[in-house]
Structures are given as structure tokens and as C-alpha cells.
Amino acid sequence: MGDHIHDQLVQYYNIYRETDAIYSQLAERSSISDSMFWVLYSIRMSGGQCTQRDISRIWAMSKQTVHSALKKLMEGGYITMEVSPLDRRSKHINLTERGKEFVAKNIDDIFTAEREAFCAMEEQERQALLDSSAKYQRLLMEQMKRLF
């Protein structure tokens, strides 16, 4: 029984890593780092504007990693940052025209591919994937809390 569980965990984490590798290859194809990719992906996913805190929280990236990616994207002319009128400690990240062109060329097709892959699954399969992933994450968190 233990070996079977171990094999299933290995299979699960291989799927997770292989999926992550798809996105790393897409970032590399676009000549940007993974963290820069996820920043641009996040901005696009949010409808064109988000904060550093949003990106750090969504992708569980350190503030330093996000800051470094933002700095490179600003230097490349892909984004601008402006102080939030509601919270001066927070900055809104916006795409420039160059950033919008880059996202249209390199990110938008990814959203389409993700949607098409998800739609290729039956409704019950999609819901089962969501439900079981959420359940595993919740149970894992409970077990990890015991460690700390």
C-alpha cells in the first residue's frame, strides 16, 4: 500500500513539474525569465492592471523576485508603475504599448490554449480536477501545519 501511494505521489508531482515546464518553455521562447513571464501573465489575467502584492500572493513568489522581474520589465519598456491613490505604499502595474504588443503576441495565445485544453475535458472531468486539487491542497496544508 505504501509503495502504491508513493508511486501515485511521484506521478502527481511529475505531472505538476511537466506542466510547469510547459510554461518555462513558453517564457524561454519569448526570451524572458519565468518570473517576468508570470508578471506579464498576471497583468493580462487581471485585465491590464495589478499590484506587486497581487502577483506575489497569486504565484507565491517572494517580493524580491517580483521586484526584480518588474525592474527588468520597466527597463525593457513593457510596464509602468504608478502609486495607488488609495494606498501610497502600493503601486499599480500597467502595460505600456510595447507591453501590450508583447502580451498580445506571447501571452494571449496561451490563454486560448489553456481554455481549449480545459474545454476538451468533459464538465465532470473539469469539476473533478478542481475538486480533487482543492481537497488535496487543503489536506496537505493541514498536514504541513502540524510540522510547524
How would you describe this protein?
- The protein has 148 residues and is mostly helical.
- It folds into three domains: 31 residues; 68 residues, Arc Repressor Mutant, subunit A (Orthogonal Bundle), CATH 1.10.10.10; 42 residues.
- Helices cover 73% and strands 9% of the residues.
- The chain has a three-stranded antiparallel β-sheet with strand order 1-3-2.
- A hairpin with a 7-residue loop joins β2 and β3.
Short recap of the structure:
This protein is mainly alpha-helical. It is 73% helix and 9% strand. Strand 2 (79-83) and strand 3 (91-95) form a beta hairpin.
Question: What labels describe this entry?
Answer:
single chain; 148 residues; mainly alpha; globular; 3 domains; Arc Repressor Mutant, subunit A
Gyration radius (Cα, Å) is 18 Å
Q: Give me the CATH architecture of the largest domain, please.
A: Orthogonal Bundle
Shape from CA axes?
globular
**First and last CA, distance:** 27 Å
Report the helical percentage.
over 70%
Largest sheet data: 3 strands, antiparallel
Assembly category: single chain
CATH superfamily of the largest domain: Winged helix-like DNA-binding domain superfamily/Winged helix DNA-binding domain
State the name of the first-level CATH class of the largest domain. Mainly Alpha
Number of helices: 7
Give me the CATH fold name of the largest domain. Answer: Arc Repressor Mutant, subunit A
Report the sheet-strand fraction: 5-15%
Mean of residue pLDDT values: 93
Enumerate the strands of the largest sheet in spatial order, edge to edge or round the barrel.
Answer: 1-3-2
pLDDT < 50 stretches: none
